[in-house]
Amino acid sequence: MVSNIVVYGGSGALGRAIVSTFVKKQWNVTSIDFVANQEATTNVLLEKTDSLEEQGRRVTGAVAGEVDAIVCVAGGWAGGNAASNELFANSELMWKQSVHSSLVAAHLASKNLKAGGLLTLTGAFPAQKGTPFMIGYGMAKAAVHQLVASLAGPDSGIPADAKVNAILPITLDTPMNRSGMPGADFSSWTPCPEVAERIHGWATGEIPMTSGKLVEIVTKDSQTTYTEK
């Protein structure tokens, strides 16, 4: 029987790596994003003008049947401290990109995730403490961390034996990051295909995981470790 995964943010750098990995492993892959991923089995296209409620209706109306895994890697980055002229706009954008997408993924899990299935969201390593130079980003990612704890508890609305966690990368090795930080130490950046393989291991049960955990992803000298917190 063919397995099914939904990748929320399937046209971003990490999303594309996840879609590609699971397609190669013969999974049916549904990509949800503003732009289609031609490698995916199915695409659900969002509108940037959608409210949270409209986005939720669009996604839950488009995904049918049971799925084995839902992975939300939608998001972005914007900086700014409390004095920044862009504080409000950037914080609103971060909330929409990270929290709204995670909430819709959680609601989708309540309707379509199989018993024992996997729900993985995306937090951030720095958001485990204060982020004074990127307040909106830190607040949004910290909210995702809290959502994971809530979803792993009893009566959260998702299948009782479902597994939920969040990945907490520091810096992913993406074309955008390389162009923005050309002088950085790339050996401390995490390759997206490697994260995709880890998620596949969780989804298949080949790699053990504990529900409700935040998974720190740290790369040093091109070696990556995954630590549950």
UniProtKB/TrEMBL annotation:
Sorted alphabetically, which keywords does the UniProt record give? NADP, Oxidoreductase, Tetrahydrobiopterin biosynthesis
- Fetch the Gene3D superfamilies from UniProt: NAD(P)-binding Rossmann-like Domain
Name the PROSITE patterns on file.
ADH_SHORT (PS00061)
Q: Among its keywords, does the record have Phosphoprotein?
A: no
Gene Ontology MF terms? 6,7-dihydropteridine reductase activity; NADH binding; NADPH binding
Record-given protein name:
Dihydropteridine reductase
Whether Hydrolase counts among this entry's keywords is no
Record family assignment: Belongs to the short-chain dehydrogenases/reductases (SDR) family.
Query: Which PANTHER family does the UniProt record give?
Result: DIHYDROPTERIDINE REDUCTASE
A GO BP entry is: L-phenylalanine catabolic process
Q: Which organism is it from?
A: Lunasporangiospora selenospora
